[in-house]
Amino acid sequence: MIRVAKKYQGLALLFQAKVPNNFCSHALKLVVYIINRLPTPFLNHKSPYVLDHLIKPDLSTLKFVLWLSYSISLTACRTKLSPKSLKCIFLGYKPGTKGYILYDLHSKSIFTSKNFVFHENIFPYHTSQSDTSQLPIDHTHSTTDIIPFDFPPTLPISPATTVAINDNVEPMSFKEAIQSDCWQQAMASELIALDKKHTWTLTHLPPGKKLVGYKWVYRIKYKTDGSIERFKARLGAKGFTQTDGVDYFETFSPVVKLTTVRVLLVVATANNWFLHQLDVDNAFIHGDLHEEVYMKPPLGLSLPHPKLVCKLQKSLYGLKQASRNWNQKLTSELLFLGYKQSFADNSLFVKTQGSMITVLLVYVDDIVLSDNSFFEIQSVKNHLHSKFHIKDLGPLKYFLGLEIARSKTGLILNQRKYCLELLSESGMLGCKPSSTPANLLRFSLKHFCYNCKSV
Question: Where in the numbering of this chain does the Retroviral polymerase SH3-like domain appear (predicted)?
Fold first, then answer.
């Protein structure tokens, strides 16, 4: 389908400019060049160029195919009476260089140049007579009527529509994020939360110390049905700028195994236990930082003095040791409550008290809580909320890509949302589905007979 779209878009450029079919290959190459730099819904509203190069392309240099242009003549054989420029046609871009591919209307030759002037919306082959499929013959004393192409007027777009479209796209930089009120509020909420936790103190950089960079990361959180839940801005440190043995030492942090999750779901369903889910807001900043780490002040933070830097007191997201420090903090708190850590899975915690059994699973900042007593679940929630900022998500519905639906007869698991995300990221969301394994009855008898004869 993509090949067909590119083919007809290339033909549309040829028909619009009324040029010979000899330029078809150049038109198709330009269509591919433009498509690779335009966002598409199949790639989460990102362009293939951004996913490949991790930077945004410069769209200011995009030009329309077969526009009239004048290239500055820099040849050595040019005399004082020779024309200073050549009348050309723009054909496309030269791969690997900053030059443009041009067609000389006089010498009928194709060359590459970066010194030229565009005459946009002017097509040299727009004449009153119908054009043929052959290249025109350029006579010395003949003139060609150049008719400017009038684009149809576009419908005005309301500002509200423009803002809505921009808000649904995750910004790539701070400069893009400040253009939207939703992302400004998200960044303000993040800075307020970090300030309440005393994540850093402002001080001068000591001699010999190295600054760690930072990065704003913007994500749109979706509900299980695909609708937008909230806009989240996360301030993270650039951990790759840290020095091993100076800024950090140990980094390992365990997470729960998927096998452990499945076993708990089976046991909880068989014994009719409660299954609840918790989420820790800004989990990493609860971990204590033991090393001296200095970070550049983030954009959006007001400073009393321009030369001040941030001395981190808590484990900010992105630091090499952040996940480990948070896991140690949570583990020590659970051990204090009487939980025992499993040797088979370090993210599995079990507490027994008489006939009451409480099981707790930890995956970074997501916690699954199961118990045969609802009052004990509420007691654990209240205690964790007093130590950390816990968000109670209620009964377990979505965890590690698993959608969980519980009924009186049992538990239903599916990965519909996870599969749709994989298809969207790979650009296969609009493709035709096929059964797996393949249905052999769909193949005709003729197909099998042909294979038998070939063998």
Answer: 77-129
3-state secondary structure of 177: helix
Residue 265: exposed, middle, or buried by beta-carbon count in 10 A (0-12, 13-18, 19+)? buried
**Phi/psi of residue 286, nearest 5 degrees:** -80, -20
Is the CB of residue 27 less than 8 Å from the CB of residue 14? yes
Residue 198, phi-psi category: left (phi > 0), alpha (psi -120 to 50), beta (remainder):
left
Q: Can you tell me the distance from the alpha carbon of 160 to that of 153, in angstroms, rounded to the nearest whole number?
A: 21
Q: Is 351 exposed, middle or buried (0-12, 13-18, 19+ CB in 10 A)?
A: middle
Please say whether the beta carbons of 108 and 115 come within 8 A.
Answer: no
Nearest-angstrom CA–CA distance, 380 and 397: 19
> What's the whole-model pTM score?
0.55
Q: What is the pLDDT of residues 209-246, one digit of tens each?
A: 889 989 988 888 877 666 788 888 888 888 888 888 88
Q: Quick check: 309 and 204 in contact, CB under 8 A?
A: yes
